[in-house]
Amino acid sequence: MSRIVHGGVFLILSCLPGVGQDHSHQAVHEDSVTATARVVGQRYCHVDSESFAVIMDVDLELMNSTDQPVIVSRHVEPFAIRVAKNMEEAKRGDFEYEPNFDYFTSGKEPPVPTLGKAPDSKNFAVLAPGTSYVTRTSASVFGFQETAKSRRGLLARGTHVFQLGVDLWPYHWPYFDRDINPKDISERWREYGHLAVGTVEPDFTPFSIPDKFRNPPCPAAKH
Predict the structure, then answer these.
(1) With contact defined as beta carbons under 8 Å apart, do 2 and 47 qualify?
(2) pTM value?
(3) DSSP three-state, residue 187
(4) Domain range summary for the chain, segments of one domain joined by +
(5) CB neighbours (10 Å) of residue 154?
(6) Chain segment 69-117, per-residue pLDDT in tens
(7) Helix (H, G, I), strand (E, B), or coil: what is residue 184?
């Protein structure tokens, strides 16, 4: 079990095989949006003498796959990640990393922004049919130190592929101080388009853990 800070939220990750998601998440798949992921940066930190974290900066391209306008949040949150050694094993459902997520916060969650009569351009993008918007998020996985006694549920250095589960409606705990019912907002904004509030899963995306990298202590490990 490992703990790191992600976007101001503490994540407790059990690296034993599981469903690889936040069990409290109840959203359904969003059919109006297709997503593509691309890793644009990586950084590392060590959790303890056994493991280290790989924090990936990920560009998510969200595309309107319908024939009507779709409203998407400019701020989205991954709620699940799973990793396979390669595309062939991913297609077979043979995952080497599929952690369970639990959350706790410092009690200083940001307030939900005011959602008025129309979607504001600061927090939302209105996509015409066939157009897309790129937003940046981050995702973390854990690897094993060479001196680790137990390597179960941790990744080796080398190449892998990962898939995210992405929540298109982020306005709920633990990322904000309260939950906003998307059904009310969807009705209010109906004239501007369909509000995307479900989840999407981009295709599996390659990434690599190098043999050597800068590996300072993770923020939570300093306490």
Answers:
(1) yes
(2) 0.82
(3) helix
(4) 2-207
(5) 20
(6) 999 999 998 989 999 999 999 999 999 999 876 555 555 777 888 899 9
(7) helix
